[in-house]
Amino acid sequence: MPWRTAGDAYSVWVSELMLQQTQVATVIPYWHRWMLRFPTVELLAQAEESEVMSHWQGLGYYRRARALHAGAKSIVLNGWPKSAAEWERLPGVGRYTAGAIASIASGEPVPLVDGNVERVFARLADRDSIGPALNRAAWKWANENLFIESPGDWNQALMELGATICRPRSPECNRCPIQSYCLAHQNGTVELRPTAVATRASVILQHAVFVPLHDNFLGIRQIAPGQWWEGMWEFPRCNLQESKATRNALGNGDDTPLGAFKHQVTHHRIQITATLVDCLTQSSELEWVDEAELARRAMPAPQRKIAQMVIRNRSGRNLFDVPSGR
User: Fold this and answer.
1) Which of 118, 191, 217, 265 is most exposed, with the fewest beta carbons within 10 Å of its own?
2) What would the mean pLDDT of 127-136 be, rounded to a whole number?
3) Whole-number Å distance between alpha carbons of 217 and 186
4) Is 86 among the residues known to form the active site?
């Protein structure tokens, strides 16, 4: 992992926020791209939010990008955090992330518990508890067993053990260096630990997206605060029940179906239909941009997919050359 080679607080901080709810393989190209554009905390603090969001687009969970941006401004103003407790005062940094940054970048003897470490503990101790009870027990265990001479290496080793050997499914117990201590292995309960938590029922949503086109300009709007993807840009989007009113608001013009696809946000499954609207006039409620400017705007993944459909349909080009991700 490139941030392990870098080892400085900024590199580790960026990587840890990117890794929240995102797999390592997905994060690596985004991390490289981010560090090329924002190699220092000062450059990140000086950047416009729109550019920060543009370099994050496709990675998902955009509050993390805003947290990094706000945290950079705080660091420039107040200096770098000197302990895990101080790291926790930054936006988007909880107990685990603070422990990771402080132990890896500064060698502070503090533990950490992520999903991988929690799973290692649940199997090692053969715990059948779930949720907060399991998490509290894992933190207690991690604190009591921290290798204080090299806490960063120890914490990364625990996470790596969970990620590569003590996996959720098909764990490789025969390769595990602590197999002889593992109570779940001895009791034949490895596949039962951690105890499964009931999953939330899926919520099905139906969205209609209209792509306004007038004189080679595309109409977009900024997503309002409080909505998914706030602050990013989108083509007019609505629930299926409101599609007629949303379409009529764009004025007269021919419609061309672009297609339909599905997208998932947490436990929400969204069925999206996209339509190109060849508008006779430009609505004053939208900002009208050409294709090059559209490619510079931060757009949520489903909107980016629709933009690609439009541009490929019109010219066969792809202006959205960014790493794939959530």
Assistant:
1) 191
2) 95
3) 66
4) no
